[in-house]
Write a structure and sequence with these properties.
The complex is a heterodimer of chains A (295) and B (747). With 295 residues, chain A is α/β, with parallel strands linked by helices. Chain A has a single domain, classed as Alpha/Beta hydrolase fold, catalytic domain (Rossmann fold). Chain A is 38% helix and 19% strand. In chain A, the strands form two sheets. Chain A has an eight-stranded mixed sheet with strand order 1-2-4-3-5-6-9-10, with helices on both faces. In chain A, strands 7-8 form a two-stranded antiparallel ribbon. In chain A, strand 7 and strand 8 form a beta hairpin. Chain A starts with a helix and ends in a 7-residue tail after the last helix. Chain B folds into three domains: 199 residues, no CATH class; 170 residues, Reverse transcriptase/Diguanylate cyclase domain (Alpha-Beta Plaits, 2-Layer Sandwich); 244 residues, TIM Barrel (Alpha-Beta Barrel), CATH 3.20.20.450. Chain B has 23 helices and 22 strands. Helices cover 49% and strands 16% of the residues of chain B. Chain B is rod-shaped. In chain B, a hairpin with a 6-residue loop joins strand 3 and strand 4. In chain B, the strands form four sheets. Chain B has an eight-stranded mixed beta barrel, surrounded by five helices. Chain B has a five-stranded antiparallel sheet with strand order 1-4-3-2-6. Chain B has a five-stranded mixed sheet with strand order 9-10-8-11-12, sandwiched between helices. With 747 residues, chain B is α/β, with parallel strands linked by helices. The chains are: A alpha/beta (295), B alpha/beta (747). Chains A and B meet through strand 2 of A and helix 2 and helix 3 of B.
Chain lengths: 295, 747
């Protein structure tokens, strides 16, 4: 596919913009006493009158994942303060991708606690308006945070990108494995094992507790959570996301049926790569612009 | 080529020497090749050793760098910190995750995490307390090498794990690496033989000391190895080949050469030891045709030699017999007698016994011969010989030692027995009827006997040597007797025969003959009628302190004492000295008179050999009397012709005083005929006698002989002598005999 002239012009303008605005990103390391971990996040201070945007990465990645960095840099260039934390996944100051076959002991609950910590940290930094942007499973983490913590007073809006769910046979989950993990957990045997999970296929090496914690986020729970959260939300889905093939395009309808504002960027993949990077940036910016304040 | 005797050795010695020399040279060549190759090999090995040392040092260094780098990378791995912070699932993580991660290399034998206090994060599950395991607590962060009992070396490395962006140590990583495996995995060696790498040690040592515990062998140069192997193989093959070749050569040499040569040598030795035995050819067959031919040649040669020897032996026997048998009588002759006598003399001292010497002589045989002719004379001789032989015991032969003279030597016989034997012989002769051959007179024989009783003898050899002379004297006595025809020698007989000569004269003559003293040789010229040349007849004279002894007395004593040989020997010696002293005038010569006895001596020819050098400047004539020559014509011919061939001239002395048989004239072995003085004087006799003499002289000249006339005392006689045909003349007309300066006095 030949890049269009407008795409090239956009690339040039953003590059010039990034060059003109000095990056003020700092790595913030915070010890989270409740988790006995030190977590890190990239923090870029923006204009005071603009909300702070917390951008959360996807499954097993870090804040250095290109989708995250491009959004963070773009929003910061637009004057927004951004905070892109890296979920520790039970590893202090984790800085690298976690492999499928790495030992996974992290849980959805602990992830939620970390998110909660960072929102509190943003608040502590004086940010009164906080917008959440999640990517893929990061979106699910934020959804779980919103569903469980109900921070409507703090979070002005939430943008879910590539929002799906984690538990479902269509996603490769093996019911027997799930049952087996449950039995282990029931028997207090938290021995790690390899499971079929997401893109890891059968290589996902996790404790039953860790594995099962994420299975909470099944299709129904997700739509249910979307329905229950009070915070305005926007859901951006790449029209060419392969995950749609697995979950079926019905998922879009189901999303439509929730309060979330579904935006489909046709042609974009799960990561909004290539020229769709700008599409998603434009979409996010469009959401965050004042009309957003007057929904 | 002059080859020294010690160089003559058996062929095996030379073959062995050549073989050893050849083998030594080959061994030297091979040894040199082996040594040179070994030097190259050693040089290459040293070079390889250096390269290998550099390579393994580099490999170790690089490994340590890589390991340290890996460890640093590992220390920054999030999951390490994950485990330090929450080691709950350490075992699972360690086994399921860590060992499957790219951080864990295949050659790592152990990778453990320690807490900040340097204690193992989680103790070992199993009772694995091997000395090579990482320690439960880190005591030193320095890299350390641990040795297992199996001489495996493990490098223990420790690296602190820091909190990100901080110098706070969260814990440590401990890594144990099996160095041998690590080296082999991480490096492909070009100069070090991987299989040879060994680590030896017992106690842990710092990494810096590792190389002192490292053993290895360089990879040997394949070309060099191949070459070395080739040389080794070559050397081995050559040695084997040499051994086999040597054995084969020895076997072949033994079969082809040494064996046949030894067999032939033994065969020849056998032939040499037993030359008279029939040579039985060896049955062994040789491979080399030449040896086979040689074997047959030796055999055939020996066979032919034996045949020839047998023929020669037969011939020799015939010749021996012929030489020792008298042609007329077929009994032993003078030669056989001389040999028998000489052998008896030679062996007598060792085997003494009684010896009797008997001489037989026919009285008046010459007159008989002249009267009845030679044929009758010969018959008489034959009959005499046979009769004597028939009368003798079979073990004693009779010898014919002169014309009518026979000798018998009886050994181990007593005096009276010998006398009886002689008597028996004489009786048989007397009783023989000679009228049967036409002799009318009664023949008489004289017998002289001398006897040696060895038990009573004081000088055996001298007494033995005197026997012939004593028998001669006895026979001389018998000849004078008419009745007692057998005479035994006794001392009185010598005195009787010399009664007319004074004892002083006798003693002087005998002394002179034996010692040479008192002898004064005189020379009388013999003049050539034709060319005026001159030579001298040597004449013996004996003088002692004014005592002049007449020549007739000298010859009388010599004859009676049978000293003819001794006198002739003395004369020859005197004349030889005269030549040596240069007392004989140049371009002349001498003639020496020799008796019949001396002529018959076996050493007769030898007596004149010292004169040979003078023959080229002098004329040397040997004079013998006619009777001796004719009586021993055959024998005389042999010895006289030998001397003539050497350059001596032979003169027949006193021709006309004896037989003067004309029939012998043509075949006599002489060069000069000397007419007796009676014949010279006969030129003045009646016409008839004179004519006979002249005719005889003419015959002599026509027969090719020089003719010397003795007794020429007047010019008239000289003239007649010349007219008669004389080539030389001798007599007082030309001067009396003159003495040679007495050399025996000047010596």
């Amino acid at each position: 596919m030949q890049p269009s002239i407008s795409f090239i012009l956009k690339c040039l303008s953003i590059s010039l913009l990034c060059a003109s605005i000095p990056a003020q990103a700092v790595t913030v390391a915070q010890k989270i006493p409740s988790l006995s971990l030190t977590a890190e996040a990239n923090y870029m201070l923006g204009e005071e009158d603009k909300p702070a945007v917390l951008i959360l990465h996807g499954f097993l990645t870090t804040n250095q994942f290109h989708t995250i960095t491009s959004i963070a840099n773009f929003l910061h260039s637009e004057g927004f303060s951004t905070l892109a934390p890296t979920l520790t996944l039970n590893i202090s100051q984790r800085r690298n991708l976690l492999r499928c076959n790495s030992l996974h002991t992290h849980t959805l609950e602990r992830d939620t606690m970390e998110i909660d910590y960072w929102i509190q940290w943003l608040q502590a930094q004086g940010h009164e308006k906080i917008v959440l942007i999640g990517h893929s499973s990061g979106s699910l983490n934020l959804l779980e945070y919103l569903a469980t913590k109900k921070p409507e007073n703090v979070i002005s809006s939430t943008i879910f990108t590539s929002l799906f769910y984690l538990n479902g046979e269509e996603l490769g989950i093996i019911p027997d494995e799930v049952e087996s993990a449950r039995m282990l957990l029931k028997n207090r045997i938290n021995k790690p094992g390899s499971y079929h999970f997401l893109f890891c296929n059968d290589q996902y090496y996790a404790t039953p507790q860790s594995f099962l914690s994420y299975l909470k986020l099944d299709r129904a729970y997700t739509t249910q959570a979307l329905n229950t959260i009070k915070t305005p939300s926007y859901t951006i889905i790449g029209g060419a996301d392969k995950r749609l093939h697995k979950v079926g395009r019905e998922w879009l309808n189901e999303l439509e049926s929730t309060p979330t504002n579904l935006i489909i960027i046709e042609g974009a993949n799960h990561f909004f790569s290539n020229e769709y990077e700008f599409d998603i940036q434009d979409t996010i910016l469009h959401i965050l612009t004042p009309p957003l304040t007057e929904p | 080529m002059n080859i020294k005797s010690h160089l003559t050795q058996p062929v095996k010695i030379y073959f062995t020497a050549l073989l050893i020399a050849g083998l030594l040279m080959l061994a030297l060549l091979i040894g040199n090749l082996y040594y040179q190759t070994q030097a190259i090999q050693t040089s290459l090995q040293q070079k390889n050793q250096i390269q290998a040392q550099e390579e393994i040092s580099f490999a170790l260094e690089e490994n340590i760098i890589n390991l340290t780098s890996n460890l640093l990378e590992l220390a920054e791995w999030d999951e390490i910190r994950q485990q330090i912070e929450d080691p709950s699932y350490y075992y699972y993580w360690h086994e399921d995750r860590l060992k499957g991660s790219p951080y864990f290399k295949k050659h790592y034998s152990q990778l453990e995490i320690y807490d900040a206090n340097k204690w193992l994060l989680m103790p070992y599950i199993t009772d694995n307390n091997s000395e090579t395991n990482l320690p439960l607590q880190i005591t030193s962060e320095e890299p350390t090498v641990i040795f297992s009992p199996k001489n495996e070396a493990f490098l223990h490395l420790f690296e602190p794990v820091f909190e990100p962006d901080s110098k706070t140590i969260l814990g440590y990583i401990g890594l144990s690496v099996a160095l041998h495996q690590n080296l082999l995995t991480e490096h492909e060696f070009s100069f070090v033989n991987p299989d040879s790498i060994r680590f030896t040690g017992t106690n842990p040592v710092p990494l810096s000391e590792l190389e002192s515990h490292l053993q290895f062998e360089p990879i040997t140069n394949s070309v060099s190895n191949d070459l070395w192997q080739l040389i080794n193989n070559f050397t081995t093959y050559v040695i084997i080949l040499l051994i086999i070749s040597t054995i084969l050569i020895i076997i072949i040499f033994q079969i082809l050469f040494s064996g046949p040569m030894e067999t032939l040598s033994n065969y020849v030795q056998q032939l040499k030891k037993q030359p008279k035995e029939a040579a039985k050819i060896t049955q062994e067959r040789f491979l080399i045709r030449e040896f086979e031919e040689l074997k047959h040649s030796i055999h055939d040669y020996h066979r032919d030699l034996q045949t020839t020897q047998n023929a020669l032996k037969t011939q020799y026997k015939i010749v021996w017999e012929q030489a020792r048998r008298d042609a007329l009588t077929n009994i032993y002759n003078r030669r056989a007698f001389d040999e028998a006598w000489n052998e008896l003399v030679a062996t007598f001292e060792y085997n003494p016994s009684n010896i009797t010497f008997i001489l037989f002589d026919c009285d008046f045989f010459k007159a008989l011969n002249d009267t009845y002719g030679h044929e009758i004379g010969d018959d008489v001789i034959r009959i005499t010989a046979k009769t004597i032989q028939d009368s003798l015991p079979s073990e004693f032969p009779v010898y014919r030692i002169g014309g009518d003279e026979f000798a018998i030597i009886l050994a181990g016989v007593a005096r009276h027995e010998a006398f009886d034997i002689a008597k028996k012989c004489l009786k048989a002769l007397k009783s023989y009827n000679f009228s049967g051959i036409g002799i009318k007179e009664k023949l008489a024989f004289s017998v002289g006997i001398s006897h040696l009783d060895y038990q009573s003898s004081k000088n055996l050899r001298n007494d033995l040597l005197n026997l012939p002379r004593q028998a001669d004297i006895a026979m001389y006595k018998a000849k004078q007797a008419h009745q007692h025809k057998i005479q035994c020698y006794k001392t009185e007989l010598e005195q009787e025969s010399l009664s007319l000569v004074s004892n002083q004269v006798i003693n002087t003559i005998v002394d002179a003959i034996h010692t040479g003293k008192y002898i004064s040789m005189h020379l009388q010229g013999i003049h050539s009628v034709t060319d005026g040349t001159l030579y001298y007849e040597s004449l013996i004279r004996v003088q002692k302190e004014g005592l002049y002894i007449y020549p007739s007395d000298i010859f009388s004593v010599v004859e009676r004492r049978r000293l003819e040989v001794e006198m002739d020997t003395q004369i020859i010696q005197q004349m030889l000295n005269a030549f040596k002293e240069e007392l004989i005038p140049q371009h002349t010569g001498v003639s020496i008179n020799i008796s019949g006895k001396t002529l018959l001596q076996p050493q007769f020819v030898d007596l004149f050999q010292p004169f040979l050098p003078y023959l080229k400047d002098y004329k040397i004539v040997i004079e013998i009397i006619e009777n001796t020559l004719i009586d021993h014509m055959e024998y005389a011919k042999t010895v006289l012709n030998t001397l003539r061939a050497q350059g001596f001239l032979i003169a027949l002395d006193d021709f006309g005083s004896g037989y003067s048989s004309i029939r012998y004239l043509a075949h006599m072995p002489v060069d000069i005929i000397k007419f007796d003085m009676s014949m010279t004087l006969a030129l003045d006799a009646d016409e008839k006698t004179k004519n006979i003499i002249i005719a005889t002289a003419k015959m002599v000249r026509n027969s090719g002989y020089d003719l010397v006339l003795e007794g020429v005392e007047t010019e008239a006689m000289f003239k007649k002598a010349k007219q008669a045909g004389a080539t030389h003349v001798q007599g007082y007309l030309f001067g009396k005999p003159k003495s040679i300066p007495s050399f025996h006095e000047t010596k």
